[in-house]
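Homework help thread (please don't just give me the answer)

Our assignment gives two proteins as sequence + C-alpha coordinate strings and asks us to describe the second one. The first is just a warm-up. Here they are:
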Amino acid sequence: MEKLIANVAPCQAASFAEALIEEFRSVGRVFSETPESLRRVIGPWPQVIELIEAAHVAMEVGLRGEVQCIPIQATDQRLIDYLVMGMGSLSVEQLRVLFLDGGNRLVGDEVLASGTLTTLTAYPRNIFRRGFELSASAILLVHNHPSGQVVPSKCDIEFTKKLKALGYQMEIEVRDHIIVSGSRWFSFLRGGLM
Protein backbone atom coordinates (compact mmCIF):
# COMPACT_ATOMS: atom_id res chain seq x y z
CA MET A 1 0.00 0.00 0.00
CA GLU A 2 2.83 2.35 0.87
CA LYS A 3 4.54 1.85 -2.52
CA LEU A 4 1.28 2.52 -4.32
CA ILE A 5 0.58 5.74 -2.43
CA ALA A 6 4.18 6.89 -2.85
CA ASN A 7 3.46 7.44 -6.56
CA VAL A 8 1.30 10.47 -5.77
CA ALA A 9 2.15 11.40 -2.16
CA PRO A 10 5.72 10.26 -1.44
CA CYS A 11 6.14 12.20 1.81
CA GLN A 12 2.84 10.94 3.27
CA ALA A 13 2.90 7.38 1.90
CA ALA A 14 4.05 5.62 5.06
CA SER A 15 1.65 7.44 7.38
CA PHE A 16 -1.31 7.10 4.98
CA ALA A 17 -0.69 3.39 4.43
CA GLU A 18 -0.39 2.77 8.16
CA ALA A 19 -3.56 4.74 8.94
CA LEU A 20 -5.58 2.97 6.23
CA ILE A 21 -4.50 -0.52 7.29
CA GLU A 22 -5.06 0.28 10.95
CA GLU A 23 -8.57 1.57 10.21
CA PHE A 24 -9.72 -1.05 7.68
CA ARG A 25 -7.57 -4.06 8.78
CA SER A 26 -6.55 -5.25 5.29
CA VAL A 27 -5.54 -4.05 1.85
CA GLY A 28 -8.63 -5.71 0.39
CA ARG A 29 -10.87 -3.73 2.71
CA VAL A 30 -9.04 -0.50 1.82
CA PHE A 31 -9.78 -1.20 -1.86
CA SER A 32 -13.45 -1.86 -1.06
CA GLU A 33 -14.06 1.35 0.88
CA THR A 34 -15.89 4.37 -0.48
CA PRO A 35 -14.04 7.59 -1.27
CA GLU A 36 -15.77 9.18 1.72
CA SER A 37 -14.43 6.51 4.07
CA LEU A 38 -10.91 6.88 2.69
CA ARG A 39 -11.13 10.67 2.99
CA ARG A 40 -12.20 10.34 6.61
CA VAL A 41 -8.92 8.52 7.36
CA ILE A 42 -6.38 10.39 5.22
CA GLY A 43 -8.05 13.74 4.69
CA PRO A 44 -8.52 15.66 1.45
CA TRP A 45 -6.04 13.90 -0.83
CA PRO A 46 -8.12 13.23 -3.97
CA GLN A 47 -5.12 11.98 -5.95
CA VAL A 48 -4.45 9.26 -3.34
CA ILE A 49 -8.10 8.23 -3.26
CA GLU A 50 -8.30 8.16 -7.06
CA LEU A 51 -5.13 6.07 -7.26
CA ILE A 52 -6.47 3.53 -4.75
CA GLU A 53 -9.74 3.29 -6.69
CA ALA A 54 -7.89 2.94 -10.01
CA ALA A 55 -5.60 0.22 -8.65
CA HIS A 56 -8.60 -1.74 -7.39
CA VAL A 57 -10.42 -1.43 -10.72
CA ALA A 58 -7.30 -2.44 -12.66
CA MET A 59 -6.79 -5.57 -10.55
CA GLU A 60 -10.44 -6.55 -10.81
CA VAL A 61 -10.54 -5.99 -14.58
CA GLY A 62 -7.37 -8.05 -15.00
CA LEU A 63 -8.79 -10.93 -12.99
CA ARG A 64 -12.15 -10.68 -14.79
CA GLY A 65 -10.32 -10.92 -18.12
CA GLU A 66 -8.79 -14.20 -17.02
CA VAL A 67 -12.15 -15.77 -16.14
CA GLN A 68 -13.88 -14.55 -19.29
CA CYS A 69 -11.46 -16.54 -21.44
CA ILE A 70 -11.93 -19.94 -19.83
CA PRO A 71 -14.73 -22.44 -19.23
CA ILE A 72 -15.78 -21.69 -15.65
CA GLN A 73 -15.21 -24.29 -12.97
CA ALA A 74 -16.51 -23.16 -9.57
CA THR A 75 -13.31 -23.93 -7.72
CA ASP A 76 -10.82 -22.68 -10.34
CA GLN A 77 -8.30 -20.52 -8.47
CA ARG A 78 -8.56 -17.75 -11.09
CA LEU A 79 -12.29 -17.49 -10.44
CA ILE A 80 -11.80 -17.54 -6.67
CA ASP A 81 -9.15 -14.79 -6.91
CA TYR A 82 -11.54 -12.67 -8.99
CA LEU A 83 -14.41 -13.13 -6.54
CA VAL A 84 -12.32 -12.50 -3.43
CA MET A 85 -10.84 -9.34 -4.97
CA GLY A 86 -14.21 -8.05 -6.12
CA MET A 87 -16.29 -8.67 -3.06
CA GLY A 88 -14.44 -10.53 -0.33
CA SER A 89 -13.69 -7.42 1.70
CA LEU A 90 -16.96 -5.55 1.27
CA SER A 91 -18.48 -4.23 4.49
CA VAL A 92 -22.02 -5.29 3.50
CA GLU A 93 -23.32 -8.57 2.12
CA GLN A 94 -23.83 -8.88 -1.63
CA LEU A 95 -25.21 -11.67 -3.76
CA ARG A 96 -23.54 -11.95 -7.12
CA VAL A 97 -24.71 -14.35 -9.78
CA LEU A 98 -22.44 -15.68 -12.51
CA PHE A 99 -24.45 -16.77 -15.55
CA LEU A 100 -22.92 -19.46 -17.77
CA ASP A 101 -23.72 -20.64 -21.28
CA GLY A 102 -23.78 -24.27 -22.43
CA GLY A 103 -19.97 -24.28 -22.75
CA ASN A 104 -19.53 -22.97 -19.17
CA ARG A 105 -18.42 -19.56 -20.44
CA LEU A 106 -19.33 -16.44 -18.52
CA VAL A 107 -22.22 -14.57 -20.17
CA GLY A 108 -23.13 -12.44 -17.17
CA ASP A 109 -21.78 -11.40 -13.80
CA GLU A 110 -24.21 -9.30 -11.82
CA VAL A 111 -24.89 -8.18 -8.28
CA LEU A 112 -28.55 -9.04 -7.75
CA ALA A 113 -28.93 -8.24 -4.06
CA SER A 114 -27.24 -6.16 -1.41
CA GLY A 115 -27.86 -6.18 2.29
CA THR A 116 -26.45 -5.16 5.61
CA LEU A 117 -23.51 -6.43 7.60
CA THR A 118 -25.31 -9.68 8.42
CA THR A 119 -28.39 -10.03 6.21
CA LEU A 120 -29.24 -10.23 2.56
CA THR A 121 -32.58 -10.47 0.81
CA ALA A 122 -32.55 -12.04 -2.63
CA TYR A 123 -35.47 -12.95 -4.87
CA PRO A 124 -35.31 -16.15 -6.92
CA ARG A 125 -37.58 -14.71 -9.62
CA ASN A 126 -35.04 -11.93 -10.34
CA ILE A 127 -32.21 -14.43 -10.59
CA PHE A 128 -34.01 -16.74 -13.01
CA ARG A 129 -35.54 -13.89 -15.03
CA ARG A 130 -32.02 -12.59 -15.68
CA GLY A 131 -30.87 -16.13 -16.49
CA PHE A 132 -33.55 -16.40 -19.18
CA GLU A 133 -32.63 -12.98 -20.59
CA LEU A 134 -29.01 -14.10 -20.94
CA SER A 135 -29.92 -17.58 -22.24
CA ALA A 136 -27.92 -19.06 -19.38
CA SER A 137 -27.82 -22.79 -18.91
CA ALA A 138 -26.26 -22.63 -15.44
CA ILE A 139 -25.53 -20.20 -12.62
CA LEU A 140 -23.04 -19.89 -9.81
CA LEU A 141 -24.18 -18.06 -6.71
CA VAL A 142 -21.58 -16.05 -4.82
CA HIS A 143 -21.96 -13.99 -1.70
CA ASN A 144 -19.64 -12.50 0.85
CA HIS A 145 -19.57 -12.59 4.63
CA PRO A 146 -18.23 -9.29 6.00
CA SER A 147 -17.49 -11.04 9.31
CA GLY A 148 -14.67 -12.93 7.63
CA GLN A 149 -16.25 -16.31 8.43
CA VAL A 150 -17.15 -18.45 5.44
CA VAL A 151 -19.32 -21.01 7.20
CA PRO A 152 -22.77 -21.03 5.57
CA SER A 153 -25.72 -20.06 7.75
CA LYS A 154 -28.90 -22.08 7.96
CA CYS A 155 -30.56 -19.43 5.75
CA ASP A 156 -27.74 -19.73 3.19
CA ILE A 157 -28.26 -23.48 3.01
CA GLU A 158 -32.05 -23.27 2.74
CA PHE A 159 -31.89 -20.55 0.07
CA THR A 160 -29.44 -22.60 -1.99
CA LYS A 161 -31.59 -25.74 -1.78
CA LYS A 162 -34.64 -23.73 -2.84
CA LEU A 163 -32.82 -22.21 -5.82
CA LYS A 164 -31.39 -25.58 -6.86
CA ALA A 165 -34.90 -27.09 -6.92
CA LEU A 166 -36.33 -24.12 -8.84
CA GLY A 167 -33.42 -24.22 -11.27
CA TYR A 168 -34.04 -27.87 -11.99
CA GLN A 169 -37.66 -27.07 -12.90
CA MET A 170 -36.61 -24.10 -15.07
CA GLU A 171 -33.69 -25.92 -16.74
CA ILE A 172 -31.06 -23.54 -15.35
CA GLU A 173 -28.66 -25.57 -13.24
CA VAL A 174 -27.42 -24.09 -9.97
CA ARG A 175 -23.85 -25.40 -10.09
CA ASP A 176 -22.49 -24.10 -6.80
CA HIS A 177 -22.79 -21.45 -4.14
CA ILE A 178 -19.55 -19.87 -3.02
CA ILE A 179 -19.07 -17.76 0.08
CA VAL A 180 -16.06 -15.45 0.13
CA SER A 181 -14.37 -13.26 2.70
CA GLY A 182 -11.23 -11.16 2.55
CA SER A 183 -8.95 -14.18 2.18
CA ARG A 184 -11.04 -17.34 2.46
CA TRP A 185 -13.81 -19.09 0.59
CA PHE A 186 -16.25 -21.99 0.89
CA SER A 187 -17.90 -24.03 -1.87
CA PHE A 188 -21.27 -25.64 -1.13
CA LEU A 189 -20.53 -28.30 -3.75
CA ARG A 190 -17.10 -29.13 -2.35
CA GLY A 191 -18.51 -29.00 1.20
CA GLY A 192 -21.21 -31.59 0.33
CA LEU A 193 -24.13 -29.16 0.67
CA MET A 194 -25.41 -29.45 -2.92
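The one we have to describe:
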Amino acid sequence: MTTTHGGITEIDYGAMIRALNQVHYAGETSFYDTAPLRPCEEALYRRLGPGARILDVGCGAGRVTRAITALGGNIVGVDINEAALAAARFACPSGTFVHGSMNALPLPANSFDQVWCLRFSFNALATEAERVETLHEMWRVCAPGGTVLVETFNWHYAGRLGLVRIANLLDMAARAARWRGQRRAGSRPLPARDIIYLANKASGAAPGYAHLTTAHELYVLTAACGIRQHATVTSEDGVVSTSAPPVRARHRRYSMWLILRKPGER
Protein backbone atom coordinates (compact mmCIF):
# COMPACT_ATOMS: atom_id res chain seq x y z
CA MET A 1 0.00 0.00 0.00
CA THR A 2 1.53 3.36 -1.03
CA THR A 3 1.86 6.03 1.63
CA THR A 4 1.25 9.53 0.29
CA HIS A 5 0.68 11.94 3.19
CA GLY A 6 2.94 11.32 6.17
CA GLY A 7 1.36 8.10 7.39
CA ILE A 8 -1.97 8.49 5.60
CA THR A 9 -2.27 6.15 2.66
CA GLU A 10 -3.85 7.13 -0.64
CA ILE A 11 -6.78 4.83 0.19
CA ASP A 12 -7.24 6.49 3.59
CA TYR A 13 -7.14 9.94 1.96
CA GLY A 14 -9.75 8.90 -0.59
CA ALA A 15 -12.03 7.58 2.15
CA MET A 16 -11.65 10.78 4.14
CA ILE A 17 -12.56 12.95 1.14
CA ARG A 18 -15.53 10.74 0.23
CA ALA A 19 -16.89 11.14 3.76
CA LEU A 20 -16.46 14.92 3.56
CA ASN A 21 -18.20 15.10 0.20
CA GLN A 22 -21.09 12.89 1.34
CA VAL A 23 -21.97 15.54 3.92
CA HIS A 24 -21.25 18.46 1.59
CA TYR A 25 -23.42 17.33 -1.31
CA ALA A 26 -26.23 16.13 0.94
CA GLY A 27 -26.37 19.66 2.37
CA GLU A 28 -26.69 21.25 -1.08
CA THR A 29 -29.68 19.23 -2.31
CA SER A 30 -32.07 22.15 -1.78
CA PHE A 31 -30.22 24.00 -4.55
CA TYR A 32 -29.51 21.19 -7.00
CA ASP A 33 -32.98 19.62 -7.00
CA THR A 34 -34.50 22.89 -8.28
CA ALA A 35 -31.73 24.57 -10.34
CA PRO A 36 -32.32 24.62 -14.12
CA LEU A 37 -30.10 23.49 -16.98
CA ARG A 38 -27.38 25.92 -17.99
CA PRO A 39 -27.45 27.18 -21.59
CA CYS A 40 -24.46 25.01 -22.55
CA GLU A 41 -26.18 21.89 -21.18
CA GLU A 42 -29.41 22.61 -23.01
CA ALA A 43 -27.42 23.21 -26.21
CA LEU A 44 -25.70 19.84 -25.79
CA TYR A 45 -29.04 18.12 -25.35
CA ARG A 46 -30.72 19.90 -28.28
CA ARG A 47 -27.86 18.80 -30.53
CA LEU A 48 -28.60 15.12 -29.94
CA GLY A 49 -30.81 13.02 -32.16
CA PRO A 50 -34.13 11.65 -30.86
CA GLY A 51 -33.82 8.73 -28.50
CA ALA A 52 -30.17 9.32 -27.63
CA ARG A 53 -29.31 7.43 -24.45
CA ILE A 54 -27.66 9.72 -21.88
CA LEU A 55 -25.92 8.85 -18.60
CA ASP A 56 -25.55 11.63 -16.01
CA VAL A 57 -22.56 10.55 -13.89
CA GLY A 58 -22.43 12.17 -10.46
CA CYS A 59 -26.02 13.35 -10.87
CA GLY A 60 -26.38 14.41 -7.23
CA ALA A 61 -29.84 15.75 -6.49
CA GLY A 62 -30.80 15.32 -10.13
CA ARG A 63 -30.50 18.81 -11.61
CA VAL A 64 -29.56 17.63 -15.13
CA THR A 65 -31.44 14.31 -15.07
CA ARG A 66 -34.64 15.98 -13.85
CA ALA A 67 -34.55 18.75 -16.47
CA ILE A 68 -33.80 16.46 -19.41
CA THR A 69 -36.42 13.95 -18.28
CA ALA A 70 -38.92 16.83 -18.34
CA LEU A 71 -37.84 17.60 -21.92
CA GLY A 72 -38.60 14.01 -22.92
CA GLY A 73 -34.99 12.84 -22.97
CA ASN A 74 -33.78 9.30 -22.35
CA ILE A 75 -31.46 9.83 -19.38
CA VAL A 76 -30.25 7.89 -16.34
CA GLY A 77 -28.65 9.54 -13.30
CA VAL A 78 -26.10 7.73 -11.14
CA ASP A 79 -24.61 8.90 -7.84
CA ILE A 80 -23.12 7.44 -4.68
CA ASN A 81 -24.81 9.88 -2.30
CA GLU A 82 -28.04 8.32 -0.99
CA ALA A 83 -29.35 11.59 0.48
CA ALA A 84 -28.89 13.39 -2.84
CA LEU A 85 -30.55 10.52 -4.74
CA ALA A 86 -33.51 10.57 -2.35
CA ALA A 87 -33.97 14.27 -3.11
CA ALA A 88 -33.65 13.56 -6.85
CA ARG A 89 -36.29 10.83 -6.78
CA PHE A 90 -38.65 13.03 -4.77
CA ALA A 91 -38.25 15.96 -7.19
CA CYS A 92 -38.50 13.76 -10.28
CA PRO A 93 -40.56 10.60 -9.65
CA SER A 94 -40.53 9.75 -13.37
CA GLY A 95 -36.72 9.91 -13.58
CA THR A 96 -34.37 6.94 -13.54
CA PHE A 97 -31.75 7.11 -10.79
CA VAL A 98 -29.16 4.46 -9.89
CA HIS A 99 -27.04 4.22 -6.75
CA GLY A 100 -23.40 3.60 -7.57
CA SER A 101 -19.86 4.92 -7.58
CA MET A 102 -18.37 6.79 -10.53
CA ASN A 103 -15.33 4.51 -10.54
CA ALA A 104 -17.41 1.30 -10.52
CA LEU A 105 -20.57 2.07 -12.50
CA PRO A 106 -23.25 -0.63 -11.96
CA LEU A 107 -24.26 -0.46 -15.62
CA PRO A 108 -23.59 -2.62 -18.70
CA ALA A 109 -20.89 -1.83 -21.26
CA ASN A 110 -21.72 0.08 -24.46
CA SER A 111 -25.12 1.16 -23.16
CA PHE A 112 -25.15 4.99 -23.55
CA ASP A 113 -24.67 7.26 -26.55
CA GLN A 114 -23.66 10.17 -24.33
CA VAL A 115 -21.93 9.89 -20.96
CA TRP A 116 -21.88 13.22 -19.12
CA CYS A 117 -19.98 14.08 -15.94
CA LEU A 118 -20.93 17.72 -15.51
CA ARG A 119 -20.55 20.61 -13.11
CA PHE A 120 -17.29 19.37 -11.66
CA SER A 121 -18.37 16.02 -10.20
CA PHE A 122 -15.05 14.69 -11.51
CA ASN A 123 -13.18 17.12 -9.26
CA ALA A 124 -14.66 15.39 -6.20
CA LEU A 125 -12.44 12.34 -6.86
CA ALA A 126 -9.58 12.50 -4.37
CA THR A 127 -6.92 10.22 -5.86
CA GLU A 128 -5.33 9.67 -9.23
CA ALA A 129 -6.38 6.01 -9.10
CA GLU A 130 -10.05 7.02 -8.71
CA ARG A 131 -9.78 9.48 -11.57
CA VAL A 132 -8.28 6.89 -13.91
CA GLU A 133 -10.86 4.26 -12.88
CA THR A 134 -13.70 6.73 -13.44
CA LEU A 135 -12.55 7.64 -16.95
CA HIS A 136 -12.19 3.93 -17.72
CA GLU A 137 -15.72 3.25 -16.48
CA MET A 138 -17.28 6.10 -18.44
CA TRP A 139 -15.49 4.88 -21.57
CA ARG A 140 -16.70 1.33 -20.89
CA VAL A 141 -20.40 2.22 -20.67
CA CYS A 142 -20.23 4.56 -23.68
CA ALA A 143 -21.54 2.93 -26.86
CA PRO A 144 -19.40 2.75 -30.03
CA GLY A 145 -19.74 6.04 -31.86
CA GLY A 146 -20.72 7.80 -28.63
CA THR A 147 -19.14 10.58 -26.61
CA VAL A 148 -17.95 11.07 -23.04
CA LEU A 149 -18.01 14.66 -21.73
CA VAL A 150 -16.27 15.58 -18.47
CA GLU A 151 -16.42 19.15 -17.12
CA THR A 152 -13.70 20.11 -14.64
CA PHE A 153 -12.53 23.02 -12.51
CA ASN A 154 -9.36 24.58 -13.93
CA TRP A 155 -6.28 25.07 -11.73
CA HIS A 156 -5.06 27.92 -13.95
CA TYR A 157 -8.29 29.94 -13.65
CA ALA A 158 -7.19 33.38 -12.47
CA GLY A 159 -10.47 35.07 -11.56
CA ARG A 160 -10.94 38.81 -11.44
CA LEU A 161 -7.58 40.59 -11.21
CA GLY A 162 -5.99 37.17 -10.75
CA LEU A 163 -7.34 36.93 -7.20
CA VAL A 164 -8.55 33.31 -7.39
CA ARG A 165 -5.20 32.14 -8.70
CA ILE A 166 -3.32 34.12 -6.07
CA ALA A 167 -5.54 32.79 -3.26
CA ASN A 168 -5.01 29.19 -4.34
CA LEU A 169 -1.23 29.62 -4.55
CA LEU A 170 -1.06 31.38 -1.18
CA ASP A 171 -3.22 28.72 0.45
CA MET A 172 -0.98 25.95 -0.89
CA ALA A 173 2.15 27.78 0.29
CA ALA A 174 0.66 28.46 3.73
CA ARG A 175 -0.18 24.80 4.25
CA ALA A 176 3.35 23.76 3.32
CA ALA A 177 4.87 26.42 5.62
CA ARG A 178 2.61 25.41 8.52
CA TRP A 179 3.66 21.77 8.14
CA ARG A 180 7.35 22.68 8.01
CA GLY A 181 6.83 24.89 11.06
CA GLN A 182 5.44 21.85 12.89
CA ARG A 183 8.73 20.08 12.08
CA ARG A 184 6.85 17.89 9.58
CA ALA A 185 4.89 16.23 12.39
CA GLY A 186 1.47 14.70 11.78
CA SER A 187 -0.29 14.54 8.45
CA ARG A 188 1.16 16.37 5.48
CA PRO A 189 -0.79 19.22 3.84
CA LEU A 190 -3.28 18.51 1.08
CA PRO A 191 -1.70 17.42 -2.20
CA ALA A 192 -0.99 20.01 -4.87
CA ARG A 193 -4.14 21.47 -6.46
CA ASP A 194 -6.46 19.99 -3.81
CA ILE A 195 -8.64 22.56 -2.05
CA ILE A 196 -11.31 22.70 0.64
CA TYR A 197 -13.89 25.36 -0.20
CA LEU A 198 -16.89 26.89 1.56
CA ALA A 199 -20.30 25.84 0.28
CA ASN A 200 -22.11 28.61 -1.56
CA LYS A 201 -25.19 26.90 -2.99
CA ALA A 202 -27.18 26.38 0.22
CA SER A 203 -26.89 27.96 3.64
CA GLY A 204 -25.55 25.70 6.32
CA ALA A 205 -23.97 23.16 3.96
CA ALA A 206 -20.61 21.73 5.00
CA PRO A 207 -17.42 22.68 3.13
CA GLY A 208 -16.56 20.71 0.01
CA TYR A 209 -13.43 19.30 -1.60
CA ALA A 210 -12.13 19.70 -5.13
CA HIS A 211 -9.05 18.58 -7.01
CA LEU A 212 -8.30 21.31 -9.56
CA THR A 213 -7.14 19.83 -12.85
CA THR A 214 -4.96 21.05 -15.72
CA ALA A 215 -5.31 20.23 -19.41
CA HIS A 216 -2.02 18.33 -19.22
CA GLU A 217 -3.27 16.22 -16.32
CA LEU A 218 -6.46 15.29 -18.18
CA TYR A 219 -4.42 14.08 -21.13
CA VAL A 220 -2.15 12.09 -18.78
CA LEU A 221 -5.20 10.42 -17.20
CA THR A 222 -6.58 9.43 -20.60
CA ALA A 223 -3.17 8.04 -21.55
CA ALA A 224 -3.27 5.88 -18.42
CA CYS A 225 -6.60 4.50 -19.69
CA GLY A 226 -5.15 3.84 -23.16
CA ILE A 227 -7.54 6.33 -24.82
CA ARG A 228 -5.34 9.41 -25.25
CA GLN A 229 -5.81 9.34 -29.03
CA HIS A 230 -9.56 9.83 -28.58
CA ALA A 231 -9.25 12.81 -26.20
CA THR A 232 -9.60 16.57 -26.66
CA VAL A 233 -9.61 19.14 -23.87
CA THR A 234 -11.65 22.16 -24.92
CA SER A 235 -13.48 25.16 -23.45
CA GLU A 236 -17.19 25.63 -22.74
CA ASP A 237 -17.49 27.51 -26.03
CA GLY A 238 -15.66 24.68 -27.78
CA VAL A 239 -17.81 21.90 -26.41
CA VAL A 240 -21.01 23.36 -27.84
CA SER A 241 -19.42 24.04 -31.23
CA THR A 242 -18.80 21.45 -33.93
CA SER A 243 -15.05 22.08 -34.08
CA ALA A 244 -14.20 21.80 -30.33
CA PRO A 245 -10.70 23.32 -30.63
CA PRO A 246 -8.26 22.21 -27.92
CA VAL A 247 -7.34 24.69 -25.20
CA ARG A 248 -3.79 25.87 -24.66
CA ALA A 249 -1.75 24.25 -21.89
CA ARG A 250 -2.44 27.06 -19.39
CA HIS A 251 -6.06 27.68 -20.29
CA ARG A 252 -7.34 30.50 -18.07
CA ARG A 253 -11.10 30.06 -18.14
CA TYR A 254 -13.11 28.79 -15.16
CA SER A 255 -13.72 25.33 -16.60
CA MET A 256 -12.34 22.82 -19.09
CA TRP A 257 -14.18 20.06 -20.91
CA LEU A 258 -12.63 16.70 -21.72
CA ILE A 259 -14.21 15.17 -24.81
CA LEU A 260 -13.71 11.45 -25.49
CA ARG A 261 -15.05 10.22 -28.81
CA LYS A 262 -15.44 6.46 -28.97
CA PRO A 263 -14.92 4.94 -32.43
CA GLY A 264 -17.92 3.34 -34.07
CA GLU A 265 -18.19 -0.35 -34.75
CA ARG A 266 -16.49 -1.57 -37.92
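TA reply:
I won't write it for you, but here's a hint about the kind of observation we're looking for: The CA atoms of residues 15 and 172 lie 22 Å apart.
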